[in-house]
Amino acid sequence: MFRQTKSVFQKLRYLSFNGQQHTWRLKSTSARERALQYQPGQKIHGFTVKEVVAVPDLFLTAVKLTHDKTGAQYLHAARDDSNNLFSVQFRTTPMDSTGVPHILEHTVLCGSEKYPCRDPFFKMLNRSLSTFMNAFTASDYTMYPFSTQNGKDFKNLLSVYLDAVFFPCLREQDFWQEGWRLENEDPTDNNSPLMFKGVVFNEMKGAFSDNERLYAQHLQNKLYPDHTYSVVSGGEPLAIPDLTWEQLKQFHATHYHPSNARFFTYGDLPLEPHLKQIQEEALSKFACIDPKTEVPSQPPCLCCSVLDITDAFEGLTLSLLSSLMISGPNSPFYKSLIEPKLGTDFSSVVGYDGSTKEASFSIGLQGVDEEDIERVKQIISQTIDKIIENGFEERRIEALIHKLEIQIKHQTTNFGLSLASYIASSWNHDGDPVELLQISDSVAKFRQALKENPRFLQEKVRQYFKENTHRLTLSMSPEESYLEKQAKAEEEKLQKKIEVLSDSDRKQIYEKGLELLAAQSRTQDVSCLPALKVSDIEPTIPITPVQISTAGGVPVQYCEQPTNGLVYFRALCNLNTLPEDLKVFVPLFCSVITKMGCGALDYRQQAQQMELRTGGMSVSTQVITDCNELDTYEQGILLSSSCLERNLPHMFQLWSDIFNSPHFDDEERLRVLVMQSAQELANSIAYSGHLYAMTRAGRHLTPAGDLQETFGGMEQVSLYILIKAEILRPPSPRTPLLACPGEHKGVPRPAERYNFTSVTFMKRTAAMADLSQIIRTLPRLKIHLFNPNNMRCAINSTPEKVSDAAAHLEGFIKDVAKNRKERKPVRPNIIEKPINPLDDNGPRRKLISEPTFHPCPMKTFFQMPFPVNFVSESIRAVPFSHKDYASLCILARMMTAKFLHGEIREKGGAYGGGAKIGGGLFTFYSYRDPNTVQTLSAFGNGIEWAKSGKFTQQDIDEAKLSVFSAVDSPVAPADKGMGQFLSGVTDEMKQSHRQRLFAVDHKNLVDVAERYLSAGQKTCGVAILGPENDVIKKDPSWIIK
Q1: d(CA 686, CA 699)
Q2: Of 33, 51, 105, 212, which one is the catalytic site residue?
Q3: What are phi and psi of 450, to 5 degrees?
Q4: Cα(597)–Cα(661) distance, rounded to whole angstroms?
Q5: Which residues on neighbouring strands pair with residue 54, listed in sequence order?
Q6: Residue ranges of the Peptidase M16C associated domain (predicted)?
Q7: Known catalytic membership, residue 105
Q8: Cα separation of 779 and 594, whole Å?
Q9: How far apart are CA 460 and CA 319, in angstroms?
Q10: Banded pLDDT at 839 (limits 50, 70, 90)
Q11: pLDDT tens-digit profile of 781-837?
Q12: 187-218 residues labelled b (16+ CB within 10 A) or e (exposed)
């Protein structure tokens, strides 16, 4: 994975979660208490303890150590959390854009001295119960993290990771596969044309088709032009083919050394076994060196103030200051840039960025008219002057600190990974990671600084933004021929490579292609890899007690959990009475309803109250396929919020005001919110294209699938873009602008051109000369959506606060009673099911049944401004409680690991691909894929492979391990019981599913492949998002958007 500044290019490597029994536990004392027993100067397995610090706010003890022989740095965060994490990171500072650290990150995971089989990383995904396995490359470091709740698994994964990073094979074939290679388009035909191939090559082609990421990359390169930040660490597509295998090996030799490493472990497993294993398997084999990987400071202009990110307090101050300046409708830059509608939204890189050695602050807009650029620059300068003069309201500062308090208290399932990411950049440049963890100390220091000097923040603004002459103005304009120019440049690069080839070279390329294909097709001996057994999986799941009651006639589920002083509230409001013509506007309603103002509060006051009194309030769409019947589903919106226990009355008062008197009449505010949402949706396609393709592929296979496309698919994107176009009429050239702390213009970007708008929405929005139609529509939606008769609620809190929360919830229901009204459902087939399946006489939920539904096969192609494709095929299968669902779960994982990964990623060069089941649909997908028809053939061949039964019991067991790691995902206290609340899936149903998973055998898998996948291909849905495709255009079976 390539991580750049604040944006992460997510890998499609499988993320799994589990809930297993733990080994290495000492129950008599907590992990935090045990860690406090270490003393500075203490020697442990080749390490010396340097510092031991209790961090009570984060409920952990930090132990900092140094390896005696190599100087490797080590931080252990002891915390009573069973989801234990390990990571090792190296400072990686490339000086060209060939992507050497990124390609190396991929290649070291392809085999090592102790584990020489091809691709042990992906093999271990099916031999462990990991809750996270990944690796990613940032601008100046590369990190390898994993987490698991199983002690034996931790030891296995640690062994694989250590051997991978310190003793990789770095085979030339792996470099060809993961990095780049010249190869015949058809490797078996030496007369087919030569082309560039490679996983990272295609990944970065996809990354560079994303406007926001392209913009962020150019910004960093030009802001820091004198060292490693001036190049693309992930690899610029046209520079990647300049990297040689020898250069890759040399980069590993100079950067992947313990003297250049930082180790981090987290959780409740004891520290000493970690140190012993790391010492014996890796560090004892190295001596200390000077890696010479330091990043020098960017030469500043005269009188320039530049923040070094290793200053923890100054970093926190600027991070808080950044939020005050840009976050929410009360911030100065929101008022001066967003509300005047000079652009559609803030630029893709905005605010404080501490991911580089010297931090930066960026402010600007996207969607700016060319003639407004100078005006925007003037407004930015004037806004800074106003901040220096006027400062910030005290309540806004308090709201920000309150937000920080909630973030600290909120418990997540991946806290260790969050900590590793949080400390990575500063620690990478020799900052103190322990100081970073002591957040409360920095907050106290911040409060004291404000108390001693009321103009403390204004002076920081003057220092870093007014008097700082190290600044860059960057603009990026759409270019209609961008894709064509990129393709032409790639073709010219290819021809230069081909021109110098002799006949012997061509023959060698062909032969190497055949060798790689043979290696990719060969069954691997993975016996060298450690593995858990199915018998290591817990046979039963822990029960989460919930109580079902009512409040003012509204069903309520209560779940007592150790929520650390927070209360979590949800409410699901069904859409059964909502007219069909209004459904397409439900996502818009959800996105604006908490941001328009309510009661006596305008939208600014509402935003401030939400920040002061809650951990956030949101509304989202929900389409839930019934767990028993595939043609039955629940449709609704989900209200979500949290607050500190002391703020319960304030949180429910805000919800009451939103229910009773939301503000819909501010057309200018609505205009701003719609433009922002439209911009976010348009920008999301390049990154989440596989999700859009999967949603579209399933559209006509179930009743729920059609509504999911309406709410969250390409259909919803088209609606927003049409409304945005109406707002911006008449059309004009739009350019994003960013001014930040020289001037540089003219960075081209892909043209924003989406030719997929539906005729229905065109008709619906064409008549909109303004937003008055939308404003009239929102109250109509509210009448149906905020009806207590259509609502059920859930509360998660500590046992001590359940009764208090119940009383405030009762008051809320009473306050909104005027919205209660019996309305006739739009659909005739409404069925009722008990919320608690064991209590037929208790509260019930209402679902829509469409017993006469018939699936419809459809193939849709969306032509997009990308050089890569997102491909999906979906097949109607069975619901969760069906006896065959478990077999299909195992089959999806086994097909992904044993067939599709090899065909789509290794041979096909896509960044990722696989199969999954959910919502009653069995879905194939690929991500950043250079192929289309070939990938669809791979999906079909995968079904034939499964029907043939050419897999072993070991393959089945590995698939079970992988599936159970997802089934047993750790669940945060805030989310306990939510499966039953939202989907009606009880712990008893989960246990039955669990038993069926254990029982899946070879015969079951062959049977479901034949009965569902093979037969289902006749009525499957297919969707592709990608560049112009002549083959598909000529095929009349495709619908072209």
Answers
A1: 20
A2: 105
A3: -65, -35
A4: 9
A5: 61
A6: 476-723
A7: yes
A8: 14
A9: 12
A10: confident
A11: 999 999 999 999 999 999 999 999 999 999 999 999 998 888 889 888 999 999 888
A12: beeeeeebbbbbbbbbbbbbbbbbbbbbbbbb
Q: What's this model's pTM, rounded to 2 decimal places?
A: 0.90
Q: How far is CA 357 from CA 95, 137, 307, 322, 353, in A?
A: 16, 16, 8, 18, 10
Chain Cα centroid distance, residue 310: 27
549: left (phi over 0), alpha (psi -120 to 50) or beta: beta
Alpha carbon of 3 to those of 135, 206, 233, 235, 421: distances in Å? 10, 14, 9, 11, 11
The torsion angle over the Cα atoms of residues 353, 354, 359 and 361, rounded to 10 degrees, is: 20
Tokens at 231, concatenated? 């190049």
Element (H, E) at 668: helix 667-697
Query: CB of 743 within 8 A of CB of 655?
Result: no
Per-residue tokens: 675: 């433009």
Residue 26: pLDDT band (50, 70, 90) is very low
> Is residue 759 pLDDT above 80, yes or no?
no
Among 169, 146, 106, 101, which Cα is nearest to 911's? 106
Q: Do residues 198 and 183 touch, judged by C-beta distance below 8 A?
A: no
CB distance 211 to 752 below 8 Å:
yes
Say how far apart CA 968 and CA 539 lie, in whole Å: 11
Angle, helices 714-727/759-766, rounded to nearest 10 degrees: 30
Q: How far is CA 839 from CA 547, 751, 835, in A?
A: 12, 57, 8
Tokens at residue 456, please? 């403390």
Highest-confidence range of 11-25, 297-311, 656-670, by mean pLDDT? 656-670
Sheet arrangement for strand 1038-1040 = 912-918, 921-929, 869-876, 1021-1026, 858-863, 1038-1040
**Is the CB of residue 258 less than 8 Å from the CB of residue 286?**
yes
β-pairing, 844-849 vs 632-644, is antiparallel
